[in-house]
Amino acid sequence: MPEERIYEDLTLVRRRAGTVFWIFLALTVLVVGYYWKVQVLEHVKYARLAEANRTRVRVLAAPRGLIYDRTGEILADNRASFKVSLVRENVKDEDASFAEISRLLGLDEPTLRARVEFHKDLPLFEPIVVADGLDRDAIIPIESRRREFPELVVESEPQRFYPKESLAAHVLGYLQERTPEEVRAGTPSRLRAGEMVGRSGVEKQYDDILRGEDGSVVEVVDSLGRVQGAQAHQYPVQGGRIDLTIDHRLQSLAEEALAGREGVVVALDPNSGEVLALASSPTFDPNRFITRFTPTEWLGLINDPLSPLENRAIRGLYAPGSLFKLVMSLAGLDAGTITEATSVYCSGATEIYGAVRHCWFAPGHGAMNLTDAIKNSCNIFFYQLGRRMDIDEIAKAAARMGLGAKTGIDLAGEKEGLVPTSGWKRKVLGEPWYPGETISVAIGQGQLQVTPLQVAAMTARIALRGKSVPLPRLLRPEPESGAAAPPAAPANPFKEAFFERIIAGMWKSANDGGTGQGARVEGLDVCAKTGSTQVMSRESAERLARAGREVKTHSWFSGFAPREHPRIVVTVLVEFGGGGGATAAPVARRIFEKFLELEKR
Amino acid sequence: MMIDRRLVQEIDWVILALVILQALIGVFFIYSSSHFLAGNYHVRQLIWLGISLAVLVFVVAIDYKFFVSLSVYFYGLIVAVLAATLVFARLVAGTKSWITLGLVRLQPSELAKIVMILVFARFFAEYKGAYLTASTTFWALVVAGVPLFLIVLQPDLGTAMTFAAIVGGAFILAGLRRKTIALFIVAALLAGVGGWSLVLKDYQKRRVTTLLNPQGDPRGSGYQVIQSKIAIGSGGFAGAGFMKGTQSQLRFLPARHTDFIFSVIGEEAGFLGVLIVAALYLALLARMFLSVAKARDRAGVYIIFTASLLIAFQFLVNILMIIGLFPVVGITLPFLSYGGSSLLTSFVACGLVLNVKMRRFANV
Questions:
Q1: How near does any CA of chain A get to the CA of B247, in Å?
Q2: Predicted structure pTM score
Q3: What was the pLDDT predicted at A125?
Q4: Neighbours of B100 (CB within 10 A)
Q5: ipTM here
Q6: DSSP for A298-310?
Q7: B364 lies in a domain?
Q8: C-alpha to C-alpha distance for B350 and B205, rounded to whole angstroms
């Protein structure tokens, strides 16, 4: 170009400018290539991230199924519970806000701060639960001052509620929040953090039925977690209803009778195995598990030496004492060691294997046949029987009566108890069986251990004269699905006649001036056996007695009524209650009377 | 001063059209990403576009020689304003970058870039050697260093970097020997180490470490990059549609209408949108850069080159930054990002290019 010449030579700078542009162009092409990678090749990944960004699944808790007793009374209900959360992002002045909120919620400020501090890693817009389990009255002041507290969020959730408080607490069990470990281990779809699960009793046993299905809302949220709208709504499905065999009237009477003592009352229908009452004392209020314990309360509860959380009916192990004489009688009759006519003279004491053994009745019962021995619970008669029998023979009879094995009730945590055999002793203690031990077993002492429910189940077998007995259970069969017969223990191989023998003794015990007369009920042929179990060795007991100390035994009663076509079995255990006839039998009488009264209605 | 008809014919209308088109695209996406906020940002941006066009006309009307000759005064003025900003400006988001003049808030550091372009044009106009000498380099660094230092003090890292890019560009144009390049690298390394330990604030350091590991602090400084990348990636090839990008509409994206406007484009217009905007940029910058051939003198070449570099550098750094390939330093996307000072600066830079280009036949 002609003009160029009159200007200075700029070729060098122009070339350099061009080079820079080409470098820029190359870089831009590379960057656009990277955009291609992110937007086209990795699109799916980022699309998923964007979706996760904007939607939040909020779980709608399913109300648990209700639990009714056999009369249709609600034992476990739900009620609306409110929880208050704090959104830190909306807090304007932390000090003023915390002071005001703690006053509003009735929390002390350090507790409030500690809760918020505990969740400090959560994003600021995430609500932190500062108070829960509040009832409607507690949230009214908050709701009425809604505008002053934009940082507070109030939500409601169904919460378990036991309207009858501690009634049947051991049957119902209690709920606890799932531990973080369980939440991690579980399948995520089924579990939600903070979810309450059954930890004991029916709540645990039938947790699958009771739990129901949580619903969910898929919410679209913005970057501050503010809800912009709901995308999908799945309503929660309430858990299934559970109908228990428990009769709340018998149950409350049983608990009342045990009040202030440690012990068990079990009442069941021998024909169906349905448990009418199952009380264990001391007890607890399962509502407290929902509304949260204070740490002191909780430690007090779990460290209580009387262990109120334990269901003694299925987990308490006791020597059966004289109740075992019923098993001995059946074993003796079955082995032919004794007959109805066998008679033993009781002078109050006897010497066996070089040791003097006493009857509980020091003056002695005189000549005793089987029926009278049961009626009077004569030790000497059964010592002599035990002397003539082998321990393994006795153990076999005990096993046939369901001892040493779980009854199979629909409650978790049942214990088996123990029926010693010579083989067991050799294996566990490494020692041979000594005949002297058989003598202790003969009156239900020694290593024998049973649960009160096992005794009740055994009594039901006796009441039915060895016929096949349904397993004890708490869940009422649905009327329409009657086809599924409840599982039953196999028919008992003892002869019916043998049962009649011992039932005769049991009848006399209650109705003919025997040890069980405290349970006599007019118009109801009660058949019973009592027991007083030594809690310590006879030697220690005698030493204490000499020292003037009162030595209390565990007090047992087990019986059924009426004698023909029995309708109810009642087993009572009172720890350190003294004589079975004096303490346990009157408790049983009240149950029998109430049963009769309820039947008449 | 009247504009010669012949001069008007020589205006590069393509550059002007491209610039206006970019700015309008920007207004659309500013609307999309801020319509739910109070403040009518799209309207404000349109007003700024009008102002910028008016200023552009003014810039084009006056011979660039005149601006270059006044650059010394501009320089003194901007240094004073920058110093005053440091003293009088209120802290906004941790920096003292803004001064308020009546209704408008201005960023003097933006205008300082223009001043720098003119100052360097003047400085190098008489420099005809093939390569930079040590003394020229030294004085050039001193001239650039004063406003740069004031900007670093604000602190405004993004502008400081852009500033440094202009200086570097001018040096490249003036000719750098290998020795000088090596010296610069060593000096840069020393400045980097010294700056890291003495000058950079914690939040700025975090932006750098975030680049290396954005997941390290997903709710903090990594948040912007992660969200921006999600926005871009979720756009896919064709995009979520105008005003349908969840990342921007639901405010997951930070600084949507300003620094991260390109993320909104990536999300709502997809790769296609990215490609179109990038192509428009390349077309514009090709035309601008290659205009150096049309400059009648050395000052003109420097003006065209540094002004183009200003736009190119910000564009490149911004699109690298929002996809996580560069620390988040607060560099806007020229023409598209919301912001009056930024738009005005970019338009003035273009105006200077047009100015030089249209006066290639003018008499000396």
A1: 7
A2: 0.63
A3: 63
A4: 11
A5: 0.90
A6: HHHHHH-TT-TTS
A7: no
A8: 33
